[in-house]
Amino acid sequence: SFSCSYRFAKEYSTSPGRGYGNGVIQVLKKLSSFQLSDVYQPARDQFNGRGSFGNGGAMRTAPFALTFPDRADVKRFARLGAMLTHSCSLGYNGAILQALAVHFSLQGALDLPLQFINNLIAEMEEVEDNKETRNDARILKEAEKPFCERLHRVRDLMNRSKVSIEEVISELGNGIAALHSVPTAIFCVLHCLQPLEGLPESYGGLERTIAYSLALGGDTDTIACMAGAIAGAHYGIEAFPQSWIRCCEGAEDADVNAERLHKLYHQFPQGGRSEKVKQQWYREENQSGAKTGVK
Ligand SMILES: [Mg+2]
């Protein structure tokens, strides 16, 4: 965990002018210190000890779903990865939800959209069933299980024949809170499985998903990033137009890292030969003193 957080902070310092929020800049500065004994402490200190519920942890969580075949690992590491910067349950639970969406999508679950959303609701019922979540939800005046409540709204919207952009924004949001953007991204993917009025007929599902996410406005880069990760796991790299890839910063790096993640994924045949690697990760995690509430 320490090495991960340290490299994360160093990466930030090579290019700091990227419009990060001030809160997370303070966290990254502390994470780049070698004296840090608990890498999760800087995030906990944010917002008078409440921690951030923004969507930054969710936005960067997809690689956990690409690395671990096992769902329990996906949830566990998505949570820990997000907690480096987002210690409020409404932040890290959003990251777990996003990682689960990529995980199910990777398994082809979007072929059955209703089952896909029902699976996510069932998982989040468990993820949100704890004291921290209830406490944060109460303080922030949200439903008892905030992400489950939003996923029910997603399911209601996807069952309707016509939905306006205004309705999507008012029902699900398009803001910087994880609660107002992760369910929105999931809806974008589901809504764009079929051709949509107002988008070029030549567009495939992946292009529709990205274009539709951007059309919602608000925190467009993050929502399109999350929707793109879920859709990408479903449609595959071939669905991305070459011209779009050429416009992406860091596309070559992404390609190299994707190969590495793919190798890692295949080292983990459901509790198989790399049990040793996993054990070491768990040891590091426990040494860092992180609470591990994810089943
Ligand atoms: Mg953003």
From TrEMBL:
Matching entries from Gene3D superfamilies are given as:
ADP-ribosylation/Crystallin J1
- Record SUPFAM superfamilies: ADP-ribosylglycohydrolase
The GO cellular component terms are:
chromosome; mitochondrial matrix; nucleus
Catalytic activity line of the entry: alpha-NAD(+) + H2O = ADP-D-ribose + nicotinamide + H(+)
Please state which protein family the record places this protein in. Belongs to the ADP-ribosylglycohydrolase family.
Q: How does it assemble?
A: Monomer.
According to UniProt, the name of this protein is: ADP-ribosylhydrolase ARH3
Write out the annotated subcellular location: Chromosome; Cytoplasm; Mitochondrion matrix; Nucleus
Question: Which cofactors?
Answer: Mg(2+)
Q: What biological-process GO terms show up in the record?
A: DNA repair; peptidyl-serine ADP-deribosylation
- Give the binding site residues for Mg(2+): D219, D221, T222
- The top EC class is hydrolase
Protein species of origin: Oryzias sinensis (Chinese medaka)
